[in-house]
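Protocol step 4 of 5: obtain the predicted structure for the target chain.
Materials: sequence only (see below). No template structures provided, no constraints applied. The aim of this step is simply to have a reference model before the mutagenesis design in step 5. Sequence pasted as it appears in the construct record:
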Amino acid sequence: MTSDSPSRPTTLIYGGTAAYWLDLTEFGAVGDSLTPETPFGPAAPITWLSGRDGLTVGFSSRHGVGELQRSAGFVNHRANLWAAQQFGFRAILSWNGVGAINPALAVGDLVVPADLLDWTSSRRAHSFDRWHQPTAGPPFDPALRETILHALTVARPTEAGADLTHHAAPVTYVCTEGPRLETQAEIALFARAGADVVGMTLAPEVWLARELGLRYASLCFVTNYATGMARGREPTREFGPRVARTCLPILLAAAGRLARASR
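Step 4 output (structure tokens):
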């Protein structure tokens, strides 16, 4: 896959919620788009995007192109991460929609997780069919996390009037199996375990990245309140284009800072 590929960028952005609605030409010059074949099936297409600052990154929409084609529980993470490594990416910046468990969080807020509770049960957690004992450590790359946090203070979302309320404090993301939503009792359990937000995407994605030696960090957009957590607040849900149009400029800014730091 790599021998006949031209020189590639080293940062890959994984688009999550609403990425399939984006017009990438709003964010820069769109280059090649490839759908890699892997030993684990076809990966999600990877598109090369050159921003206005001249930086080129890879971009891949986990859930489809043009429309929602697969929900979180049906993403082929093994194929996606295998392709990322084969194309020479070294760092992955992603965005994800999450439900708020911590009552301090509201719909529209942005957080950058520092830890993970993996509540999945049947997903394949490794790229290779062999027993593997990874080294213990933080699931998210601390330096990449700080890079995203810095970008939150300087980036401007494309969505007009987007309100950037972000929380710099470390948060814990709990990943559930899906595709069903969590019960109120499950959310209460996760809250007691220390979870701040809930989603269905980051496991096994972060474990696969780590196994393959890829640095990984994620930006989370609070799209809804977890079951039972609205607590008198308007049960707002935000899954529209605003999510993607807010998150992509932030991750492009983070990728730019990462590129400058590596020079």
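Step 4 remarks: The first helix runs from residue 77 to 86. The chain has five helices and eleven strands.
Proceed to step 5.
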